[in-house]
Amino acid sequence: MSALSMQDTLPAIVAAGLVCHFVFNRYEPDSPLSHVGLLVIVPSILTTLLLPSASTFMRAFGCAYLLYYSTIVLSVVVYRLSPWHPLARYPGPVPCRISKFWMAWVSRDGKQHCYYARLHQTYGDVVRIGPNELSMRDVNAVSPLLGANGLPKGPHWDGRMAEQSTIRTLISVRDAAEHSRRRKPWNRAFSSAALKGYEEILGKRVQQFVAMLEQRTEPVDLAELISHFTFDFMSDMAFGGGSEMLRDGDKDNTWHLLESGLPIALVLSHVPWLGKYYVKLPGIGEDLKKFRMFCQQRATLRRSQGSQSKDLFHYLIDEAGLERHSSPPTFAEVASDGVLAIVAGSDTTATTLSCLFWFLLSNPQTYRRLQAEVDRFFPPGEDLLSTVHHPHMSYLDAVMQVHHNETLRLFPPVLSGSQRGTPRDGDGMLVGPYFLPKGTSAFIHFYSIHRDPRNFSPFPEAFWPERWLPADQRASFASSDSKGLDKLPFVHNTNAFVPFSFGPSNCVGKKLAYLEMRTVVCVMMHRLNFSFAEGYEQESWERDLKDYFVSTKGRLQVVLSPRN
Ligand code: HEM
């Protein structure tokens, strides 16, 4: 058989490149073995075909690899920008349509929520933010995407949680049936009866927190201290204790370690297949592993001690044996979900509480009104921790709720929403007015939908808690900078308020979050006065708030003084 000439071989390399693109596009192989096969072994074989007609091995090697890879890249780019791509009808910037590496790059500074918001302003309600991904700002898509008949969790969890190949935490379970099995004990853990049982655990931490604040005479970073409070409380809930940040500070650097892992987790969520390689790098994820190990030990201890009180662990491990005859959660699942409880439950409430205090201190009139309300309903001698009065205090409840809601509207801790995805082997799905072909990911962009004047008007970008009150109370609350308010069209679409997401996979801890935030704010406002520390740059707060799926925050320098 005569050797192949250069002219014969080059088209074969191009053809092989096109086939490789086809295989990636059709089957999305993500195992390292298939990557090696398609991206190393195939071009190596092509190199040997070229050898007889190339003068040196290096020439044959360079030519085969260059042509093979150029064909793949060109074919991918042309296809993704072409009118034949299934998402071609949706507008979006060229780099987004070509590769998710673009979003991985854009999001590295923690400002992806602002980038998405700008894209929506330019391109409209649905934007193609990846080759196979859409961001949505349309209230009509909320229920179809996230609701009972909506889509399961999307592939970004495969990258974020790449190290959890066997046991996944609830939030990252992509199979709908498995998710619903895992969610059962969580739902029970946040029933009204269960919540009542948590008040004592919460009360102790609130007392400790506020007593500690009362001792602080120098300016403090309130955001950091709030984080310590929420972390200790969630550790009590998840594993019956084990964290004493309020007492000792973050001496093991745990909070910092958890936050420092967020930027890379976000990058991996944009390019999930990279996660498989990232976790194999030596030394990677050691801190997180240590934290998980610590939680595992706490879970083992907590299980051996049995139920001291009906905390979250009690329900997650099903100590009452209610799931005995069906499919009780395994210990590994419970330990993993305990980690989730601490991470998901402490970070989000800490961000909301810190943002609330920033808003209150930036709006002194609102601050005074809220404090007056708290004083009115909690006269001297009243048990500040008691929630028994809450149902009868509709006004206080409304006021507390509206402040939290307005904070969550402007700064939802999960700023860019939680991804969903159509299965790769289905027919695609209609999401409201939009068709999502198979293998498409999508999310509702919380930050944009919450600030859309079609949903909240007037002042969609301003902190105006009164918008949540009934019309008669709203008028009496109208502040001086909202003169002529009654003449402005009022829009208040609560269907577009989704900081806890929506549907069967929404935030299961929502009721606990409100209980915790309401209780601690009441006690803080009652017992202390707050003001910005001298020299604190107020604008830095918004600037330093970063979107890494959950948010990280900067410093909130505050001076505290006990009230008599
Ligand atoms: C202001 C406070 C909070 C906010 C804004 C918030 C927001 C969210 C969001 C947006 C999700 C994603 C839901 C989805 O994928 O559609 C979520 C999930 C979750 N949150 Fe929260 N959260 C908060 C507090 C808490 C607390 C206190 C807990 C207590 C343990 C908690 C536990 C969870 C869990 C377990 C999930 C996973 C739910 C699932 O996949 O079924 N969260 N949260």
TrEMBL record:
Pathway: Secondary metabolite biosynthesis. CDD domains: CYP67-like. Heme binds at C507. InterPro entries: Cyt_P450 (IPR001128), Cyt_P450_E_grp-I (IPR002401), Cyt_P450_sf (IPR036396), Cytochrome_P450_monoxygenase (IPR050121). Gene3D superfamilies: Cytochrome P450 (1.10.630.10). One of its GO terms (molecular function) is heme binding. The chain crosses the membrane at residues 33-51, 63-81. Keywords: Heme, Iron, Membrane, Metal-binding, Monooxygenase, Oxidoreductase, Transmembrane, Transmembrane helix. Its cofactor is heme. It comes from the Eukaryota. Belongs to the cytochrome P450 family. This is Cytochrome P450. It comes from Rhizopogon vesiculosus.
